[in-house]
Fold these 4 entries.
Entry 1:
Amino acid sequence: MQPGDRLHHETSSPRFRARPNSSEPRESEHHMPDIDWDALRAVALEAMTHAYVPYSNFPVGVAAIVDDGRVISGCNVENASYGLTLCAECALVSSLHMTGGGRLVAFTCVDGKGSALMPCGRCRQLLYEHSAEGMLLETVSGIRTIDDVLPDAFGPRTLEAYAE
């Protein structure tokens, strides 16, 4: 699988389930598509090789599946002033919009050794903004939904509900 490839899955089917790496899916995952986490992680690992990290030497790569089946990726890009460093999730969201928009349905993040990383709080909010409801994340503690890792989040769905 390469960035820009499409996975053949049906996001509209209520019977597809995620395949976690080490444990059975949680009840909240029963409405999600079948995700090939190994293939998605491989895309994140490839993206990580492009990270610009001359200061921390801590490369990060991310990959996600969009609701239309596209696979997108990103890496972190540091800056000498540190505060201007771009997390890999920022590159991912830029790629999302540069390649046609949509909503994220599955996401993974890896470090330079290929280990799973949990996105920071800022990046969780960024992912929430662009997520499909119930988006899955591969985390250090297994497969979780966006609502599990950012409970009671404020975002587009909050504003839509308010407008009704």
Note: Confidence is low (pLDDT under 50) at residues 8-30.
Entry 2:
Amino acid sequence: MLQASGGGQLSETAWGSVFRKQRHRPDGLLYYSRTSADDARTTNLAFVEVDRGTMGGPRLAAKLNAYARYWATAPLPAGVRPGTTEAQGGGVPLWERRYLHFPRLLFVLTGTGQAGFAHRADDLEAIARTRYVAKMLRTVPAMVAKLEDLEAEGPGADAWWSITDLEAGPGPWWN
């Protein structure tokens, strides 16, 4: 358990096989609990991806697409055939079996300097505009940060940039 700025605690959990049938597996699942001044406790979840400067834009795009696929996967109940009246509206999303809300997406980038970070963040923002990914990102926040900033300022610092609007500037990841 790590103490984070903003009065929260940070814990990392070993990742299960949520993406068993998908071709992607997150680097981690982050649980972050915060207690406000009035003792109200809030817990946020996030899928974490770490790039140490080894992934190009296409691999980052593939990761975002894999999350969008997982978010959209809603198998039909047993015995219901596609195209029938019973199938209208689809099944319950697969992720709802484990989570109340789909976890946020956090991309931590390092090993490329400021110019490399800006280039990779721009790549993520471009992918976020594609129709399939943009549909998910209407309800699922996705952020990007430099590892060096997180080490210097802590995970609760205003070091996270929304990949849907990099111009908005940095903020905490749980907003």
Note: The first strand starts at residue 2 and ends at 4.
Entry 3:
Amino acid sequence: MSIQILSQPRNSLLKAGILLLSLAILDSFFTDFGIRNNHIQEANPLVRFIYDTSIIGFYTIKIGLPLFLLYIFTKIESKPFLHILVRFTILFYILVLILHIVWISFTL
């Protein structure tokens, strides 16, 4: 029973990491669609450079970093501040996806 109690924060962190990865995948697809169709421009200069240089590099960074973070979550001890940081990042990605939905609704 104590093992299950100890694993709950880690499971919560892993679930949040999977949600973060899912949001990052959606963001990368919507961003690529918007850039390809001249609906939006990438606001981050570094990501814009990567996108202009290599679409594969763009997807590697946008999806690879959350995947790497998810891997790290499997190797480290769950801490309350990690949960706060991941929740903040999820909230940020949700806001970005809302922006994607807004511009898509105006362009289609």
Note: Helices lie at 2-36, 45-53, 55-75, 80-107.
Entry 4:
Amino acid sequence: MTSTETRIDPPYVADESTQLSAFLEYHRATVVTKAAGLSEEDAHRSLLPSELMTVARG
């Protein structure tokens, strides 16, 4: 459920596995929402130089 229109708040009272899965889905939906509308070039543009980011470049 990663949609730019839907982001469900995770439950605050649940077992550990349910909370972990729900928070992960919540954060995935947040990233999708924030990245919506970016061009392919902007999505791959590095804002700051970093040695850590060289692993992700292909």
Note: The chain has two helices and no strands.
